[in-house]
Amino acid sequence: MELVVATRNKDKVREIKELLSDLKVRILTHEDFPNFPSVVEDGKNLKENALKKARAIAKFTGKLALADDSGLEVEALGGAPGVFSSRFAGENATYEDNNQKLLSLLKGVPPEKRGAVFRCVIAIIDPEGREVVVEGVCRGRITEKPRGKGGFGYDPVFEPEGSERTFAQMSLEEKNRISHRAKALKKAKEALRKLKVLSGYGSS
């Protein structure tokens, strides 16, 4: 069984590969396909973007495709940046640009009002066109300054509930035990087995 990860983000690919390592599935990426399409993420929400990417890559490759769209929802900002998380500071924003804009907007906001939720929506489409959409969330808070060198995206400023460390201060293995993406992928694997897409290809 082969599964194509519908993203060009190497950091996401690395995490997804690690989280699916218990399955007997060959993970393919954009590097395995010439002319791998870039999909415009113009959906109104994470689900729309995830489905759009999964459908496009499933059609292009003719294989089982998985797409992830994730967002950070900050309570003090009314749920922003949300679906615009990857381009919060502009279309070509770096991870650092986005983090600096977020921290700037939250300057002076007390710890008890810096609550946030990391949300991940995963869409999987098989060659027969069957679709699975699942969601995972991780609650926490936004720190006052970046901490840690690991992870990517908003990891240096997100401290999950029950921890005094940010995602960026954790190992990949630690993060993958509690992250929004880990929770979503766990649900995705369960849903796929029920559809028998992965029947006989892995263990729980």
Automatic annotation (TrEMBL):
Keyword terms of this UniProt record: Hydrolase, Magnesium, Metal-binding, Nucleotide metabolism, Nucleotide-binding
One Pfam family per UniProt: Ham1p_like
Catalytic activity: dITP + H2O = dIMP + diphosphate + H(+); ITP + H2O = IMP + diphosphate + H(+); XTP + H2O = XMP + diphosphate + H(+)
Gene Ontology CC terms, in alphabetical order: cytosol
Full protein name: dITP/XTP pyrophosphatase
EC numbers on record: 3.6.1.66
Family: Belongs to the HAM1 NTPase family.
